[in-house]
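Re-run with default settings, no changes from the original entry. Doing this only to confirm the output is reproducible before filing.
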Amino acid sequence: MPPINNLIEQFSSPETLMLPLDSAVYGGAIWALPLWSERGLIGIFLLGMKQSGSLYNQEEMEIARVSGERLIDTQASAEMARRLMSLQRERLAQSQIIDQQTRRTLHDDILPDLQAAMISLSSEQSAANGQITAALNLMSDAHKQISDLLHDMPIHWKQRLVWIFFHTWGTGFGGAA
């Protein structure tokens, strides 16, 4: 079968409804019907001889053309849905990675800094100083609340919590010790 490029060139506008073909050249196809969409020419439907041997009427050719256009539209829609699902899966995977990184940051960086600040404050001063005791109690409460949040909260909120922490308090508690 020869390339279809010769046929594509002959269907330059939607006004050309069909082209007769040499069945010996086009593998038994006797008619070429253009398939159009808003985007332009989207395909060519090749019709062979009817099993009954009779000729195609205009309605049958129109049904074949419209069916071909719908099949291509359906295939394009299915491909678009597949790509969108792939993008959604990719986005979900990225979101899960970010959530895991957030959890790790809170657990490995922020909570140890709070704990180190509490230990430093408690070892440098005596417990008799009321301000230090109050600060230690506040840090202890914050430590417990963050731990509870990590354990209980939905994963997507962990990223927001880290963002709030970093933008409110900076990247560490080194100055607190």
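The helical segments are 5-10, 58-124, 130-152, 155-169. Residues 99-176 form one domain.
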